[in-house]
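Researcher: Re-running this chain for the archive, since the previous output was lost when a drive failed. Same request as before.
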Amino acid sequence: MSQPAFAVWMAATQQRVEAALGRHLPPADSTPARLHDAMRYAALGGGKRVRPLLAFAAGELTGAPAERLETVACAVELIHAYSLVHDDLPCMDDDVLRRGRPTCHIEFDEPTALLVGDSLQTLAFELLASQPFAAPQQQLEMVALLARASGSRGMAGGQAIDLASVGRPLEQPELELMHALKTGALIRAAVLLGALAGDALAATERNALDRFAKRAGLLFQVVDDILDCTASTATLGKTAGKDEAAAKPTYVALLGLERARDYAAELRAEALAALAIFGARADRLTALADYICHRSF
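Model: Regenerated structure tokens:
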């Protein structure tokens, strides 16, 4: 797929997801207005929407209708938005900047931010459970998949390991487990949920897609670690160098900058190799792997 064609598709999909999120989120002036205003502040108006893009691209492999993929994409992005609100709280990463704007607890207050995260999370499951777009058993599988990716065996568990690892060097297998949970689980869920919104894949195809998703999730985190120490705060839209300052375990700290870059290239190659079974049907996923690897913010 050509870069211009991919850029057009990516921009159109991001705009579609933004509009869908705007429809699903409660109106800012509805009671309780401050909470609803803060929910919209946290979820709208920024972000790369990588997880929704992955869901849409994976859904193309299974012929999933765009309307179903909208629901999946919104559910995953709401979970992601909730995680960012909670990660930024003083009891977690204690950050004041997100997507170039004050973080939710700075713009509003800590109690409101806590409730924003709670409410975005529950809205995600409400959307995924209430839209009649799949056979009941398939829909239950999708809800369970998103729940596992979000909980103690996924994103929340990875954050717990991260908090427990501050100031303590981790070996590479430990670091990869932490990020497979903290970052990779939701990226993997986005890919698999997008595919599940359409026709069933053969077992070999689903396994291949899962391998791609796991490598893409790890790739995303390795590149994040590289950008944290090479890009500016203005470019990132969040505080640069924060992981190093907080003595957090990162791939750059473990491997060094150049080896971390080499590792990102290896993960990209492994992700693309997993897609070979699909041929040209996976062109958008291939382009997304390249985007994740080479993004500058």
